[in-house]
Amino acid sequence: MSETTEPEPEHERIDPEYDHRREEGVNEAALEALLDEYAIGRDDHKNAPAFVIRPDDVQEVLRLLRDEAGFDHLSCITPQQYEDRYESIIHMTKYDRRTHEVTLVVPLPTADPVCESAEPVFRTADWHEREAYDLVGIEYEGHPNLTRILLPESWQGHPLSLDYDQNKPQVVQYTKHANPLEQSHRTPESETMMINIGPHHPATHGVLHLETVLDGETVEDVEPDVGYLHRCEEQMCQQGTYRHQIIPYSNRWDYTANLPNEWAVARAIEDIADIEVPEYAQVLRTMSTEFGRMLGHFLALGTFALDVFGDFTAIFQYAFRDREVIQDILEDLTGQRMMFYYFRLGGISWDLPEPREEFIEKCRDFLDALPAKMDEYHALITGNEIFQKRTIDTGFIAPAVAKNYGCTGPVARGSGIDYDLRRDDPYGYYEHLDWNVVTEEGCDNHARMLVRMHEIEESAKIIEQCLDLVEDWPEDDRTVQSNVPRTLKPDPGTETYRAVESAKGELGIYIRADGSNSPARFKIRSPCFHNLSALPEMAEGEYVADLIASLGSLDIVLGSVDR
Question: Which residue ranges does the record assign to the NADH:ubiquinone oxidoreductase 30kDa subunit domain (predicted)?
């Protein structure tokens, strides 16, 4: 574990996000000098300096930024179409310095939107660019497999392009899955077999289809096939208003740990609209979000044990026992048990329920009992011989490979990558609290589960400190919302990319305003989408049983993968 910096005793302003990022941000002059040969213009993005580059310089610029300036994290690619052009926007940052960000804007002609692929430099661009091609229609030259990813191959048109007819009926023809290895057996005696795992297999955590090629019990090739739960969330957010209609959608993405989703949306909109959040509301946001993180990690713990050694009666039910207590607490706080909608722009919906003392005592009772319960989990899980054999040294993903695929959250931290946006890109009240970022060096399925178990304990530390703060907070200073206009219309052309640390990793939102009360473009950077793309690296060459364990260790939610 690596400790965060000690909290300062006094703070002039508790929400110094913009100033903090400018102080800690990237050296723009150095970037201008580095990209002088390639930049054909500048753009104005609120979160980072933006450079306009030519479509045939993408790989050269990315290598330059990675090798010369240390930008080793391609966090998101946002495609969009204007009346006169397409754009492929690449959001770059660093795993060891999150506040160092740079944006590359690649304009493309409307008649022939072709851009050089970033995949040869960053493997994570594979799925990014397939989604951009599928939904917007941008083609990426040099991409190894530029096929649709969310929609069937026979789909006509690109749903997020401006000329797409939303009312035109579609006749979808499905094709037979081909075995990619049937002509390349390793030996004359070897025969590969293709099997479909999912989309209705209980171990695929929803509606995920794994096209798997086996040689005996060994996984020779696996290709995750997503899109079965695609619900057009980005399009619905573009049709909703900033003030009230977008945040509720976010609860449906990662529906196992919803509150960080709400914060991701709120953070992005508050950035483009220059909305401040009161200090008291920041504390309650932080506390409620850590309860939400626990919700996700307890579910991950129980379902993973069920996947790995079929333990339903003990671990699965123990995990749900503790998850139910948290849901009771959050129901008291938010009024809902699942789709909370507790965040509002500029703060939260309301203060602690009355009587406050009773609610705080209920929270403390849960926290006081948690250490003994975590000892139970360690005895039942980490000390279990079957669990150890199924998880230790299986699903291995090296740190360099995890970074190349854009992995974040417990998946990255389980490979020793010390990266957590709560500390590295401070928001809320996190930088003023005493807590640790949890990392493990095992790089395997076991390490990823250990990270989640220890993060539950760290969330408890954060919540305990927040309870101390709100308990002693002066009654006349308990402001839960700032004064936000009823109708928000950010300046046209305002663009930002903001992210938070969800239970699954970096959840980012790109927004472009057009002067109306709804975004012109709303892009969701899903941590589950990126983590799942690394599954072949973890599973190929291992047994099919290890594939199931590796998939479970990713803790994906298909509502977040497909959006």
Answer: 52-169
CATH assignment of the domain containing 87: 3.30.460.80
- For 441, other C-beta atoms within 10 Å of its C-beta total 10
The length of the chain is 563
CA distance 366 to 377: 16
* Cis before 199? omega within 30: yes
Domain finish residue from 90, 123, 141: 141
Give the chain's count of helices (H) and strands (E): 19, 17
In angstroms, what CA-CA distances link 540 with 1, 241, 537? 30, 45, 6
From residue 388, alpha-carbon distances to 270, 380, 533 in Å are 45, 11, 25
Residue 116 CA to residue 56 CA, distance in Å, equals 5
Looking at the DSSP bridge assignments, the partners of residue 211 are 196, 223
Answer whether residue 299 is part of any domain: yes
Per-residue pLDDT of the chain (563 residues; tens, 9 = 90+): 444 443 333 333 334 343 444 456 778 889 999 999 999 999 989 989 999 999 999 999 999 999 999 999 999 999 999 999 999 999 999 999 999 999 999 999 999 999 999 999 999 999 999 999 999 999 999 999 999 999 988 888 999 998 888 888 888 777 766 666 666 555 556 677 888 887 877 777 678 999 888 888 889 889 999 988 887 888 888 889 998 899 998 888 888 888 999 999 999 999 999 999 999 999 999 999 999 999 999 999 988 888 887 766 778 888 889 999 999 999 999 998 888 899 999 999 999 999 999 999 999 999 999 999 999 888 888 888 888 888 999 999 999 999 999 999 999 999 999 999 999 999 999 999 999 999 999 999 999 999 999 999 999 999 999 999 999 999 889 999 999 888 999 999 999 999 999 999 999 999 999 999 999 999 999 999 999 999 999 998 899 889 999 999 999 988 888 88
Look-up of token digits 């402001």: 479
Structural contact between residues 414 and 451, judged by C-beta atoms closer than 8 angstroms? yes
H helix runs in 122-273, sequence order: 125-135, 233-239, 247-250, 259-272
Q: Where residue 365 sits, what CATH number does that domain have?
A: 1.10.645.10
- DSSP annotation of 121: T
Last residue of a domain, one of 141, 173, 198: 141
Count of structural domains within the chain: 2
For residue 326, is it within any domain?
A: yes
State whether 134 and 257 are in the same domain.
no
Claim to verify: residue 115 and residue 248 sit in the same structural domain? no
Judge if 247 and 137 occupy the same domain.
no
Same domain, 136 and 271: no
pTM above threshold 0.85:
yes
Q: Are residues 239 and 137 in the same domain?
A: no
Is the preceding omega at residue 519 within 30 degrees of 0, hence cis? no
Q: What does the block give as tokens for 548?
A: 């199931």
In a domain, 216, yes or no: no
> Residue 442: what residue type?
G
Residues 506 and 357 grouped into a single domain:
yes
Residue 201 lies in a domain: no
| Residues 422, 319 within the same domain | yes
Q: Are residues 311 and 434 in the same domain?
A: yes
Find residue 508's DSSP bridge partners. Answer: 499, 525
Neighbours of 382 (CB within 10 A): 14
